[in-house]
Design brief:
By secondary structure, the chain is α/β, with parallel strands linked by helices. About 50% of the residues lie in helices and about 10% in strands.
Length: about 1100
């Protein structure tokens, strides 16, 4: 920011930013929203480059590839701009230029040539770093690290859990059988429980295994629970002053004296009750001070509570209560105390928990076997393997010692979202560091933006490190708090400070993961008009709110021609009325993983088609097929068709019905679709599922009814899902396909210019928009299912160690277990604190304007406006209550919550529609007939099924290599995956007689690429590199959809489009063969090039690569 123009005030934290660049100190930096965190990381990296001996001594880790790429680009751009002496004007650019020039001098002095060899910059994701170090010592890491990371590990967890629970049927006395009996023999619940625990095994596996015997397990878990109980007692004790504690103790003595039986009824001795250090003291205090119905102070006391008429201190007790009357927060704390358990696990519940703790390690071992069989692992397995590769702080491995020698500076981005395992990794990497040895740790993040509990992030780790340093102070960290907000205008920043100062906790607490709000100072001056606008309503009228959103979007886009708008939602369900309203208003938008693919009409039609050919007796699916746009039978004709004989399938009815019974239009329509439908049924088992569905869809005219390029991409996504299902080797299971379909999202509108974007709040993190609209703040989130096991990780106050709290499984239908209730309250409270932070993230995306929309409720009995529990509005109620209180008490019409279908025109193909006639292809001789030369024998077989299957497996593996990076692959890894390739080929239906040769061909193809310089170049690191890139567009007035095997931009700015071919050549001249291949595919690749050239203005080259032959052909396409 140029601080001479357009700023609100001088930079408030300039000294802190300067200090954070000191290359000989370690820091933990709290960087609130808009504070320039990435720029600070970039400058720190540049500052360190100017003093190290080798660039590899600096390791920077981020959470996403995008963040790592952005940081790498900033560093390289800074060096390139400094070399070219490009002009700079902003203050941060001047500082970055100074640092870059120092690096260039160091680069020349040491001969690094960083701009020519940018790979020497070690910027990676945490997951990528884990995988890289785990593979250094595969014997320590385990046998599975040559495997790829699964896209859907949940299926693997379920498989392992089912296999483990199989023991329950073999031995009635097994731990599995005891666990199942406790769950009323609900097998599915037991499997789900184990699968969920496997997903989070990084937390419990390393804690359960060292405990060993059951006695050690029980003692460790009970000790952790006891410490948690007394943490809460200590917090409550501190909430009372010393004088009030003394008065309370005296009043308790009076009550016990007047009602001696109270202690017996309470189930505790008077000595324990009278000790203010005990849980029993505070639970008895809650009995005296609160009503039985909840956290409400008593209005009066009586003989029943130990203060009969005539008691001298009854007035003191009433005065004590009156002094507490307005302290609602203290009442809640006291209410929670009386629910805390006083005893250890009951023996019966411990037996069940012991069974589970016996089963879990065995189930984790079962999962390893599933990983090996399926050729896939999850990220947790990679993280566990990485930790194993480094050993223990007291017993480091050779790899840990090697990394300790190589790495001198570590930078970690988004540290507020780290997990216990990632912090443990840092502890191991720094285990050999000594004070004053010149090595530094730089942690950057913002605990106010920690919103990933569902990914095992633990915000308390940031707070503990800021308070005590890493590893209990072994690595001291200087805490730096940034305060300048470069993103939002002054009006917004002032509103953030006022609002979130009330919303967020006033004090931080590690055990409860409470984050204190940190105010910011605006760098940009205030704009005229309201920075924040609230659009309140009484009653849930989703249609009215959607219309308001559309109006706000239109106004914002019209007012600021260069501005952009974001609609941010807590849940995708909040968009069900908003998206149709935007379309109706003619507003094009881009969605980021928000619109369900399953909800698109083209996918619903394809799903019905899939159901129909898999299940001929599914009448509902067949009716949907015949009603779909490609057929379009009227309801009257469908009634006639179905009424013929209810015992017949729809296909049989189509064959037997007299066409004259249908309308003239229906007769033509049925005649056209009957042939392809019946032929597809006759081909059952002859083709893979994707081929059957896609071919039938095309034959019926499915592509002809699609509205835009996005729908073509959506259809292709569905076909790719079917193809993955083919590769899995599982029989056609429609429920499994539908389940995976639920996790896919519709393609964005290609016509949208990006000025209006729609996404969840989680997806918006790290982004910024001129105008932010947050609808649905009054909506209550959906209740999660009651889990069968409660467990929680807590950060200890000293050292940041993890304490595992685990509640015994509650028996079916029993909600009274105090341990279970304790952990539920703790978990719910953490979720509420994270909701505050989620709201902070959403609001602080705004640069100029912020709009909040939501409803409160009122009733005839209670006209006071109320926010729904756990809603964003409830968390904002201290700020927005007055706005809702001012609304007239006539609630708007409440919608029924059911999405109303938009009134769209009926889309049907003409009754006489026919597939387009393919053009006649002129046959050209490959060699002149009169050349006088004998024809060269070129042996290849295009139609051979084995070649196609080999190609499928090779393409999938090259896609994986492109995504993971060449540096993670070797011939050895390819060799280790032999069984995986064989399993994939077998799943595709390749005969057993061909499996060995085909597997060898797959390994040879991939190994050749790794050995071949051209192959390594193709799959190496490039700008905008992508594998299996789907591309849609218009060529010659026709909409086409293609998939590019590999595309990227080289260092000269040329776009490359490369196609892989797994053909073999065993006779004739190889060059002639490759020339023939170029001739054969020249038109296809030039079509790809023209499609790409229409989207970007840059040079394009195309190429064919033959991994089995190490063959290559490239040319400049005719555009």
């Amino acid at each position: 920011m140029n601080r001479t123009n357009g700023t609100a005030s001088p930079m408030a934290d300039a000294e802190q930013r300067r200090r954070a660049l000191s290359p000989d100190s370690s820091f933990i930096v709290q960087a609130p929203a808009g504070s320039g965190k990435t720029e600070l990381l970039t400058q720190r990296f540049l500052r360190l480059l100017a003093v190290v001996e080798k660039p590899e001594e600096i390791l920077a880790m981020t959470f996403t590839r995008k963040a790592a790429g952005e940081m790498r680009n900033r560093i390289l751009d800074a060096l390139q701009d400094a070399r070219e002496q490009k002009a700079v004007t902003e203050d941060y650019q001047v500082r970055r230029r100074q640092l870059a020039e120092e690096v260039l001098r160091r680069d020349e002095e040491m001969g690094w040539r960083l701009l020519e060899h940018p790979a020497r910059l070690r910027l990676t994701t945490i997951d990528g770093f884990n995988a890289a170090i785990a593979r250094r010592i595969p014997l320590l890491a385990g046998p599975d690290l040559s495997l790829s990371v699964a896209d859907d590990p949940d299926a693997l967890y379920l498989l392992a859990a089912r296999r483990q629970m199989g023991a329950a049927g073999q031995d009635a006395k097994s731990p599995e059988a005891r666990l199942l009996a406790h769950l009323d023999n609900r097998y599915a619940s037991a499997v789900t429980l184990l699968a969920n625990m496997l997903r989070a095994r990084v937390h419990w596996l390393r804690r359960i295994m060292p405990m060993g015997a059951a006695s050690g397990l029980r003692e460790g878990l009970e000790s952790a629970l006891e410490r948690q109980v007394y943490r809460q007692v200590g917090r409550l004790r501190q909430a009372f002053t010393a004088a009030s504690r003394k008065t309370l103790a005296e009043l308790i003595v009076v009550a016990l004296h007047n009602s001696p039986g109270m202690a017996d009824d309470f189930g505790c001795s008077e000595e324990r009750i009278g000790d203010a250090e005990t849980l029993e003291f505070w639970q008895f205090a809650a009995l005296l001070l609160l009503t039985k119905s909840g956290p409400q102070w008593r209005k009066k006391v009586s003989k029943a509570t130990g203060f009969p008429t005539g008691e001298a201190r009854k007035a003191d007790m009433e005065d004590f209560l009156e002094a507490l009357r307005d302290d609602d927060e203290l009442a809640i704390q006291l209410d929670e105390i009386r629910l805390l358990p006083r005893k250890a696990y009951p023996d019966e519940q411990w037996k069940v928990l012991e069974s589970l703790l016996t089963v879990l390690p065995e189930c984790a071992a079962q999962l390893k076997l599933v990983f090996a069989e399926r050729g896939e692992v999850d990220y947790a397995e990679v993280a566990i393997a990485a930790l194993n590769s480094l050993g223990e702080p007291e017993r480091p491995t050779d790899l840990a010692l090697f990394l300790d020698y190589r790495i001198r500076h570590i930078l970690v981005d988004e540290f507020q979202d780290t997990s216990f395992e990632q912090v443990q990794m840092l502890k191991l990497l720094t285990a050999g560091w000594q004070p004053g040895d010149g090595r530094t740790l730089f942690l950057v993040g913002d605990p106010m933006q920690s919103i990933y509990r569902f990914r095992e992030a633990e915000v308390a780790l940031f707070m503990e490190c800021a308070r005590n340093g890493l590893d209990g102070g072994r690595i001291p960290l200087e805490a730096v708090v940034l305060s300048t907000n470069f993103r939002s205008q002054q009006g917004l920043v002032e509103w953030f400070n006022e609002a979130f100062g009330k919303i967020m906790p006033r004090v931080e607490d590690l055990a409860e993961a409470k984050v204190r709000f940190s105010a910011s100072v605006a760098d940009k001056r205030a704009l005229a008009g309201d920075a924040v606008s609230v659009h309140p309503s009484l009653g849930n009228d989703e249609d009215a709110e959607a219309a308001t959103v559309a109006r706000l979007v239109s106004a914002a886009l019209d007012k600021d021609a260069d501005g952009n708008v974001a609609i941010l939602v807590r849940s995708r369900a909040h968009l069900r009325r908003i998206l149709p309203a935007l379309r109706q208003a003619g507003l094009a938008f881009r969605t980021v993983d928000t619109e369900s693919l399953a909800g698109r009409p083209v996918i619903q039609d394809l799903l019905a088609l899939t159901r129909a050919i898999l299940h001929p007796a599914d009448r509902g699916a067949w009716l949907a097929v015949l009603r779909a746009p490609w057929c379009g039978l009227s309801l009257a004709d469908l009634y006639v068709l179905m009424g013929a004989d209810h015992r017949m399938t729809v296909a049989e009815s189509m064959e037997s019905i007299d066409p004259d019974e249908l309308s003239a239009d229906g007769k033509v329509r049925l005649r056209r679709v009957r042939g392809p439908l019946l032929q597809s049924l006759a081909e059952q088992g002859r083709h893979r599922l994707r081929a059957r569905v896609e071919n039938l869809w095309v034959a019926l005219g499915g592509p002809a009814v699609l509205g835009d390029a996005a729908d073509i991409e959506n259809a292709d996504s569905y076909f790719r899902l079917l193809e993955k299902h083919d590769l899995s080797g599982e029989p056609a299971d429609l429920s499994g396909i539908e389940e995976k379909l639920g996790g896919l999202y519709a393609a964005p509108d290609p016509e949208a210019d990006g000025r209006l974007q729609i996404m969840t709040i989680h997806k918006s993190k790290g982004l910024e928009f001129d105008t932010v609209i947050i609808p649905g703040i009054g909506k209550q989130p959906a209740d999660t299912n009651r889990p069968l096991l409660r467990w929680l990780s807590v950060v200890a106050e000293q050292g940041g160690e993890e304490e595992l709290l685990m509640a015994p499984l509650s028996a079916t239908g029993d909600d009274s277990d105090p341990f279970f209730k304790l952990l539920k309250r703790l978990d719910d409270q953490r979720n509420l604190y994270e909701t505050d932070r989620l709201l902070y993230v959403a609001c602080t995306r705004a640069k100029k304007r912020l709009h909040l929309l939501g409803h409160a409720t009122v009733s005839a009995k209670n006209p006071q406006a109320r926010a729904a529990g756990k809603s964003l509005l409830q968390r904002m109620w201290p700020v927005l209550k007055d706005v809702y209180d001012e609304l007239p008490r006539e609630p708007a019409a409440v919608s029924d919550g059911v999405p109303r279908p938009a009134q769209l025109p009926l889309i049907r193909l003409p009754a006489d529609w026919q597939l387009p006639v393919l053009p006649v292809v002129e046959t050209v001789s490959t060699l002149p007939e009169d050349s006088g030369e004998s024809a060269v024998a070129i042996e290849f077989d295009w139609a051979k099924e084995a070649v196609r299957m080999i190609g499928l497996v090779v393409h999938a593996e090259l896609d994986l290599i492109g995504r993971e990076g060449m540096e993670k692959w070797s011939r050895a890894r390819v060799g280790e995956k032999k069984l995986h390739y064989r399993a994939q080929l077998m799943a595709l239906g390749l005969p057993a007689t061909d499996l060995d040769d085909a597997t060898e061909s797959v390994q040879e193809s991939i190994g050749n690429i790794l050995d071949d310089e051209k192959g390594r170049w193709i799959l190496g690191a490039h700008l905008e590199a992508s594998c299996e890139q789907a591309l849609s567009g218009f060529l010659g007035g026709e909409l086409v959809n293609v998939v590019l095997d590999r595309t990227f931009i080289d260092e000269e700015g040329t776009r490359w489009i490369i196609d892989y071919k797994t053909s073999r050549h065993e006779g004739g001249d190889l060059d002639d063969f490759l020339d023939m291949q170029q001739q054969r595919y020249e038109g296809q690749l030039e079509r790809y090039a023209r499609l790409m050239h229409n989207m970007e203005d840059r040079p394009v080259r195309v190429g064919l690569y033959f991994p089995l032959l190490k063959g290559w052909r490239e040319w400049q396409p005719d555009l």
